[in-house]
Design a protein that fits this description.
By secondary structure, this protein is α+β, with helices and mostly antiparallel strands. It has four helices and seven strands.
């Protein structure tokens, strides 16, 4: 009887031992998983502090020019052709932001009304930026690509002056000259500014039709710029 009961006892203890082994193995796996989770959480907590320790570079999309409070040089004299002098309602800061910096919607409305296409306005670099667009076909003249260099030549609390140099190399004789436009904004009293608009032409190549072309350029510039000035006056009254 003892020989018969001993195998039976062994058969009863083997499943129990196997169950204990499985429980131990499962416990080890749970401990391992817990340690891995703790390690992962520790790494996540360390990452933000590592990111904060590195300085982040902030890039402004439409950054203003880096201008000093004092004037940049002296306020220049008007150019050869004085087209208009007009008092416009609006603080100098508002007119400066719209007309010179182009931070508002004024120039977008000008480009749209004139049906300019492919308008590209580069960011300001110090006191300069590039602007380009395509003028639509007009009469016998085909579409014309226009390239502007805008330069803030003077700036103070009371006076700001923008010089715009324009080239149209694809137009007839367009590579022979460049046009100049000067916008002078002067605060005359609180809430009002005087805008002095003048222009000129700079010939870079000799041309037998120089006098004829200069006369036509002056007439076209005066018509276009006076329209822009009137649009600015109307625009500022709506702000």
């Amino acid at each position: 009887q003892q020989q018969q009961t001993q195998p039976e006892l062994q058969q009863q203890t083997q499943p129990e031992q196997q169950h204990q082994v499985e429980q131990q193995h499962q416990t080890q796996l749970q401990v391992k998983d817990s340690l891995m989770e703790l390690n992962k959480l520790d790494q996540q907590q360390q990452q933000p502090s590592a990111q904060l320790s590195q300085p982040q570079e902030v890039v402004e999309k439409d950054a203003k020019p880096e201008l000093p409070e004092m004037p940049i040089g002296e306020v220049p004299q008007p150019l050869a052709w004085e087209f208009a002098k007009k008092t416009i309602a609006g603080s100098k800061e508002k007119i400066y932001n719209e007309l010179i910096l182009g931070l508002g919607e004024f120039w977008n409305s000008v480009y749209s009304n004139n049906k300019y296409t492919k308008v590209e306005i580069a960011a300001w670099e110090k006191d300069k930026r590039k602007v380009s667009y395509v003028m639509p076909r007009k009469g016998a003249f085909p579409q014309t690509a226009v390239f502007e260099t805008q330069n803030i030549v003077a700036h103070s609390r009371r006076v700001s002056v923008l010089m715009v140099t324009t080239t149209t190399p694809g137009a007839p004789f367009g590579s022979s000259f460049e046009t100049l436009v000067q916008w002078n904004i002067t605060e005359v009293e609180s809430g009002e500014c005087q805008v002095l608009l003048s222009g000129g032409v700079n010939w870079v190549k000799s041309c037998s039709l120089r006098n004829t072309i200069t006369g036509k350029v002056k007439k076209a510039m005066e018509k276009s710029l006076l329209q822009i000035l009137e649009s600015l006056d109307l625009f500022m009254t709506k702000l």
